[in-house]
């Protein structure tokens, strides 16, 4: 079945988890993320007949989710609490720097936990636009073209914003990167 022919129930089943993870990344709250998902799919239900297929359905859904988030941010004044750890235990999308067949040593675990804490803090210090672009690109895998559509920005603006976000993160995490280079020697 083609994406444009999906029923609302199929859309929810197919995309709910991805929208939830994005909403959680943006709000840092399971309850707020669940509310955003519910409100997003209510809006999708009302707008589904107007979907013209000019973009991927996923891009359109994330655009509705983002606009819902921005509307709620204006009315409720909740802020981006991006990537508050730990993620809910029932999620399959937990981030770990120590994935693989060999479990990390206790020292590696401590270093990985410190890196994750510093990364979370560095992401929180990005501008809201840089944070959004970085999360959509690196945590949700959207292409620059899709991000520009979701955020209503030009692709060169998105590319520049992503470059600046990565540059800021590298500067903030430089001591971790240097330590890993020293360990590799």
Walk me through this protein's architecture.
This protein has 185 residues and is mainly alpha-helical. It has 2 domains: 3-76, Rna Polymerase Sigma Factor, Chain: A (Orthogonal Bundle); 106-184, Winged helix-like DNA-binding domain superfamily/Winged helix DNA-binding domain (Arc Repressor Mutant, subunit A, Orthogonal Bundle), CATH 1.10.10.10. Helices cover 68% and strands 0% of the residues. It contains 8 helices and no strands. Helix 5 (128-139) packs across helix 7. The N and C termini lie far apart (52 Å).
Structural domain count: 2
What is the straight-line distance between the termini? 52 Å
Strand content: under 5%
Give the SSE string: HHHHHHHH
Number of helices: 8
What is the β-strand count?
0
Keywords:
single chain; 185 residues; mainly alpha; Rna Polymerase Sigma Factor, Chain: A; Arc Repressor Mutant, subunit A; 8 helices; 68% helix
